[in-house]
Amino acid sequence: MRLDKYLSDQIVDYSRSQIQAMIQDGKVMIDGRKEKSSYRLQGSEAIVVDPIESQPFPVIIEPQDIPLSIIYEDDAILVIDKQSGLVVHPGTGQKDNTLVNGLMFYTSALSDINGSNRLGIVHRLDQDTSGVMVIAKTNLVHRKIAEQFENKQVKKTYIGLTWGIWKENEGLIDEPIKRNVLIQQVLT
């Protein structure tokens, strides 16, 4: 298991990116040496984490009546179609009106393995991306689904929508899609 994944499972009130920043800053040592977030744990290492500064004002997440498009539900999971524009979980720039706020309003049965600001969230989609998300209702199911993502057993398919007048009816775009560094609103 990766070092950052292991620590984010153990230190549940911090996001994986916060854990990665701690590792990058040298606040995590493996057998007395600094390692990368991607370091694969063997199982016998001594992991030392510098004391974590407590956050002075913890975010209190309130349930909010946010419409959810539910595709499937049972005792273990909830499958939703996340609409574009909806932030998945509260963070620095977004304290409410997130998917987690809506999930908390809909049900109290949500895994809490990733901390209170990521209840039920096993994976995420970007704010501007719509698509299917699997929400875990129990910690056991959360671990199983996360393991499937980690082992690349989950098939993800992305569909891009384009418009305009095209010379060909079909084709392949074989270029990375990224933000234009000069004009942040433009994707190139």
Q: Can you characterise this structure?
A:
- This protein has 188 residues and is of the alpha+beta class.
- Among the domains are: 3-49, RNA-binding S4 domain (Structural Genomics Hypothetical 15.5 Kd Protein In mrcA-pckA Intergenic Region, Chain A, Roll); 70-150, Pseudouridine synthase (2-Layer Sandwich).
- 20% of the residues lie in helices and 12% in strands.
- It has helices at residues 3-10, 16-24, 99-106, 139-150; strands at residues 28-30, 47-49, 70-73, 77-82, 131-136.
- A three-stranded antiparallel beta sheet has the order 3-4-5.
- Strand 3 (70-73) and strand 4 (77-82) form a beta hairpin.
- It is globular, with a radius of gyration of 19 Å.
- The mean pLDDT is 85.
Strand content of the residues, in percent? 5-15%
Number of strands: 5
CATH class value of one domain: Alpha Beta
Number of helical elements: 4
The amount of helix comes to: 10-25%
The CATH H-level superfamily of one domain is: Pseudouridine synthase
> Can you summarize the main beta sheet?
3 strands, antiparallel
Which overall shape is indicated by the principal axes computed on the Cα atoms? globular
CATH topology of one domain: Pseudouridine synthase
Q: What is the straight-line distance between the termini?
A: 35 Å
Low-confidence stretches are none
* Arithmetic mean pLDDT: 85
Order of helices and strands: HHEEEEHEH
Report the C-alpha radius of gyration, rounded. Answer: 19 Å
